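Would you mind writing out a protein's amino acid sequence and the numbers that encode its backbone to help me picture the idea?
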Amino acid sequence: MPEPLISVHELRHSFEEGGHRHEVLHGISERFMPGEIVIITGPSGSGKTTLLKLIGGLRTVQSGSIVVSGQPLEKASKEDLVRVRREIGFIFQAHHLLASLNTVQNVMMPLSFNRKETGRSAREKAVAMLERVGLGEHLEKLPSHLSGGMKQRVAVARALIHEPKIVLADEPTAALDGTTGREVVNLLQDLAREAGATIVLVTHDPRIFDVADRLVKLEDGVMSANVPA
């Protein structure tokens, strides 16, 4: 039996709100296996995005434990967190594209950390990935000249360009029409099957529930596993 790429145990997380401590995650425990697509659903404000950010090392673990690709995140050094993040493809609702870079340059960015990549090979891979998400004719456009849906597809291409072991996706189809949304989740499905990547996907979009190996619900900070689609 393979080891999980992500293990979460008794995870609790709180925010300060109006002078009071508000706990948004109440002892979450879950394992995410290689090659598995897990969709997390639930109402807004239930802690889904917070959970993704904690798994991605973008927030500090307060209580409980998270192990990502063999690295415990609680009390991890800055260097360890950087290494873990480089193994993850992030797709968040805020696209976080660099305004001064064009489409292909934004997608090339994750490959700049790989010494085996040349500028030419990185560009070729970025162009191929942008063609897969239907943006082959928009390579030189700045983000300001792209629609919201196009920016989301650029963000997806950037997240997948380095074939990450883990993809954390927060509402990746929210700004996309049905056809493009299906193409995006098909790309994620291909990555899971071909590279054994773990995909953790937060969504309210029932049109893509069918790609999930497991569908879990996070509500009021508590996770219930294997809920029906």
